[in-house]
Amino acid sequence: SESQNWVFMVTAQTPTNIAVIKYWGKRDETLILPVNDSISLTLDPSHLCTTTTVAVSSAFHQDRMWLNAKEISLSGGRFQSCLREIRARACDVEDENKGIKITKEDWAKLHLHIASYNNFPTAAGLASSAAGFACLAYALGKLMDVKEDESQLSAIARQGSGSACRSLFGGFVKWIMGKEDNGSDSLAVQLADEKHWDDLVIVIAVVSSRQKETSSTSGMCESVETSLLLQHRAKEIVPKRILQMEEAIKNRDFASFSQLTCADSNQFHAVCLDTSPPIFYMNDTSHRIISIAEKWNRSEEAPQVAYTFDAGPNAVLIARNRKAATSLIQRLLYYFPPNSDDLSSYIIGDKSIAK
Ligand code: 2P0
């Protein structure tokens, strides 16, 4: 019939986010519920982002997905949770020009084709599931005319990957851990939009690394099981830091922002070291970058840069303004000359978002 030939598509773009108060540890592995709140900033989409096209057609016979043009399996529980949650909220969609109507009931039976691209080299070790699942939830929500707002969509993206819930918003974002066992109140809210503090410049120093890293998912699971420091951090330290960080962001107080960001990154890596067996994400180059930043901040009247490291050796450096960013790059080039083996590249951008 004529209805065999139609296809509906939606394309969305979502940047990755960098935590300044870290998420590390789950209280529920399946629903992906964290042991503490976290705060992040969303990057400029021109540098580290995912673009995802979702398509539906009666000619499709199964759900399929391609990541960077290679087909990947959708059979994992995390993909299935996201697809199930979005389908459950699908609404009637009508295209009068094509004479097509997809009802709520149809969405349960129709199959999807999903194509996703990262605009950053996976080899850089910056591949992040954060942008990917946020983009998938957002694009599917648009395709199926889901009425949920960004926070409610974030609770669905969260079930793909915890940090993904924070990429549904630009600017500064808080992932509230929530109290409910079913995860309904574990979602992201925007603290400040991308225009609020637009002096900040982010520089990512891509540190060469040949060693295989422990995945975040298994690493944090081992930390929850073995690190007493993690328990102390989640209960006693992070709740206070979250309040202080919210205050620093509200007041654009770079001195407090920098102090909290660096301290929280260092404590996250201390928790990794406190895990049995210990997990090492930073390497000698990472440690040298910390020393350079600390020494520079102490030699000035006020801090000029904040550093933070995730589950790998790359440094995310946040300069207080463009002048500080220029000085930062000069310092990095001095300590790591262009032909040195320690650093492979820099990615420079502002925080912001586009969809
Ligand atoms: C964060 N990280 O807050 C922390 C800091 C890495 C270090 O969120 O198991 O890929 O999919 O929920 O989100 C990386 O963990 O882990 C992460 P899952 P995810 O950004």
UniProtKB/TrEMBL annotation:
Keywords: ATP-binding, Lipid biosynthesis, Lipid metabolism, Lyase, Nucleotide-binding, Peroxisome, Steroid biosynthesis, Steroid metabolism, Sterol biosynthesis, Sterol metabolism. GO terms for cellular component: cytosol; peroxisome. GO terms for biological process: isopentenyl diphosphate biosynthetic process, mevalonate pathway; sterol biosynthetic process. The keyword Transit peptide does not apply. It catalyses: (R)-5-diphosphomevalonate + ATP = isopentenyl diphosphate + ADP + phosphate + CO2. Residues 15-188 form the Diphosphomevalonate decarboxylase-like N-terminal domain. One of its GO terms (molecular function) is ATP binding. It is an enzyme of class 4 (lyase). Residues 202-355 form the Mvd1 C-terminal domain. It is found in: Peroxisome. Its EC number is 4.1.1.33. Belongs to the diphosphomevalonate decarboxylase family. Performs the first committed step in the biosynthesis of isoprene-containing compounds such as sterols and terpenoids. This is Diphosphomevalonate decarboxylase. The chain holds residues 3 to 357 of 420 of the full protein.
